[in-house]
Design goal:
3 strands, alpha/beta, 72 residues, three-stranded parallel β-sheet, globular, single chain
């Protein structure tokens, strides 16, 4: 499924390209290319810069400025 399709399904705001093909859901610290992960709990924020996920769902209440370089 394409990332833009997932963004539409969840009513999310897409930052970056939406053509990435998403194949799996994974934990942020274990994600690989083709995976989508999520960031809701601030204690996992440290993994945002190192995750290999192709995409990340981020809770609206978390600051996105430090994650901006991770857009796909």
């Amino acid at each position: 499924m394409r990332l833009r399709e997932i963004a539409t399904l969840v009513g999310g705001e897409l930052t970056g390209g939406g053509e990435a093909e998403i194949e799996r859901v994974a934990k942020i610290e274990e994600a690989r290319p083709g995976d989508i992960t999520f960031l809701h709990n601030p204690k996992y924020r440290k993994y945002a810069a190192t995750t290999a996920a192709s995409a990340m769902l981020v809770a609206k209440d978390l600051a996105l400025s430090e994650l901006a370089h991770r857009t796909v």
